[in-house]
Each structure stands twice: as C-alpha cells, then as structure tokens.
C-alpha cells in the first residue's frame, strides 16, 4: 500500500479541498486516516502537503457533523505531532491560503527517519542522573 501513497495523497487532498461536496470530504478524511494508520505514513504528509494541517483544522472548526469532526481529530492524532518550526517553514512555501505546491516544501533526504540516525548522546535520557538524585 505504501508504494501507492504518491498517487493517493493528491487525490485525498483534492477531495478535502472540495467545498461543494460534504460527503466527499467526509470520505476523504476517513480514507486519509485509514491510509496513514495502515502504512505508518506519519508526520511526512504535513511536510509534503503543507496545506494539509490547515485544511484539517478548518474541517474541525467547520460546520460538519460531529462524526466527521471526531474522524478529523482521530486523523490528527494518528498523523502525529508536527515540529512547529518546520510547519512555519512549510507555510511560507504556500502561494496562497490553500495553494497547490508541485514539489515537497522540504527536502525529505534531510529528515530524520528513525532514532538510529541520531547520535547516542543526543537521545533523550530516561535513566536517572546524578544531577537529579544527589547522594
């Protein structure tokens, strides 16, 4: 399924942008949640489609039925937390409030894909420290 994401995501985003068809947007939200959950395609959609977060938040505040709002919240939770600095940079790449961006706003080769790419000394420490527990 992951290999089809580049073909699916533009269709899903386009359906989310369709203000005339409420049912189309509701199905797009549910589809986005299922695609993200089944493929583990998290956080990256925000970077590749900078308008996506704003779209989802507008749907959340819009006049949709509560079941759709609940689905939007679920999708936001599944997709994960976004780095605010990266989001701000992505927003600058948008030509308008919901403009189309033909290329990713950031270079995905510079993104860290797993904790293994961090040096060990930068990993968060969950062990006790002598600084916190003096003897």
Q: How confident is the prediction overall: mean pLDDT?
A: 75
Q: List low-confidence stretches.
A: 98-115, 125-129
Strand content: under 5%
The helix fraction, in percent, is: 40-55%
Termini separation (Å)?
54 Å
Give the overall shape: globular
Q: Decide which structural class fits the backbone.
A: mainly alpha
H/E series, N to C?
HHHHHH
Counting DSSP E segments of at least 2 residues, the number of strands comes to 0
Note the main sheet: none
Tally of contiguous helical segments = 6
Question: Rounded to an integer, what's the Rg over CA atoms?
Answer: 18 Å
Region (Disordered): 89-110
GO molecular function, one term: protein serine/threonine kinase activity
Protein name: Serine/threonine-protein kinase TOR
Family: Belongs to the PI3/PI4-kinase family.
Structural commentary:
- The protein is mainly alpha-helical.
- It has a domain of 91 residues.
- 51% of the residues lie in helices and 0% in strands.
- α1 packs antiparallel against α2, α2 runs parallel beside α5 and α4 packs antiparallel against α5.
- It is globular, with a radius of gyration of 18 Å.
- It starts with a helix and ends in a 43-residue tail after the last helix.
- About 17% of the residues have low confidence.
């Amino acid at each position: 399924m992951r290999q089809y994401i580049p073909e699916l995501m533009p269709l899903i985003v386009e359906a989310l942008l369709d203000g005339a068809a409420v049912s189309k947007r509701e199905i797009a939200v549910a589809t986005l949640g299922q695609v993200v959950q089944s493929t583990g395609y998290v956080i990256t959609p925000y970077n590749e489609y900078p308008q996506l977060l704003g779209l989802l938040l507008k749907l959340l505040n819009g006049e949709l039925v509560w079941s759709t709002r609940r689905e939007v919240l679920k999708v936001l939770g599944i997709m994960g937390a976004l780095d605010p600095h990266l989001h701000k940079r992505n927003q600058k790449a948008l030509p308008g409030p919901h403009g189309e961006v033909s290329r990713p706003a950031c270079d995905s080769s510079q993104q860290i894909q797993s904790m293994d790419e961090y040096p060990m000394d930068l990993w968060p420490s969950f062990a006790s420290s002598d600084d916190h527990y003096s003897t």
